Amino acid sequence: MKDFMLIFIGKEYTDLGLSPEQMQERMGKWFAWNQKMQKEGVVKHGEALHPEVRQISGPNRTVTDLTAAELKEIVGGYYMVKAKDLDHACKIAQDFPDYDLGNTVEVREVLVFDEM
Q1: How far is CA 45 from CA 2, 16, 42, 98, in A?
Q2: What is the separation of C-alpha 62 from the centre of its chain, rounded to a whole number of angstroms?
Q3: Residue 75's CB: how many other CB atoms inside 10 A?
Q4: 3-state secondary structure the chain
Q5: Are 85 and 94 in contact (CB under 8 A)?
Q6: pLDDT digits over 7-65, tens only?
Q7: Cα separation of 99 and 29, whole Å?
Q8: pTM of the entire predicted model
Q9: 3 strand-pairing partners
Q10: Structural domains for the chain
């Protein structure tokens, strides 16, 4: 088994204007997906990310404060999962609960360096 990162990209629930009830329903779907992956033994860990963004760029290391509302899309969280290959990791990502909101999942294999 290899390690893959599922990166969740899209809009924040608050930016989409979801009601508290709709957000609660969404969280239920996230918890159900997490429990399914736990039972299958494929999830290693995952976290949601705060919408506050501080971007560092350029040769002068310019620091810019951004908010999720200022960005077209934001990385909202991630899961690290174990899968036999990229196709298997993509199958795990099929249960991501926010495709209907226009959000996406980027699936990337984790590079392993022998010297680390």
Answers
A1: 14, 26, 9, 19
A2: 26
A3: 14
A4: CEEEEEEEEECCCHHHCCCHHHHHHHHHHHHHHHHHHHHHCCEEEEEECCCCEEEEECCCCEEEEECHHHCCCEEEEEEEEEECCHHHHHHHHHHCCCHHHCCEEEEEECCCCCCC
A5: no
A6: 999 988 888 899 999 999 999 999 999 999 999 999 999 999 988 889 899 999 999 99
A7: 12
A8: 0.88
A9: 82
A10: 2-109 (3.30.70.1060)
Condensed to tens digits (0 to 9), the pLDDT of residues 56-83 reads 999 999 999 987 667 778 899 999 999 9
C-alpha 62/C-alpha 57 separation (Å) is 5
- Residue 15, Cβ neighbours under 10 Å: how many? 14
Token pair for residue 71? 């960005």
Token pair recorded at residue 22: 């709709």
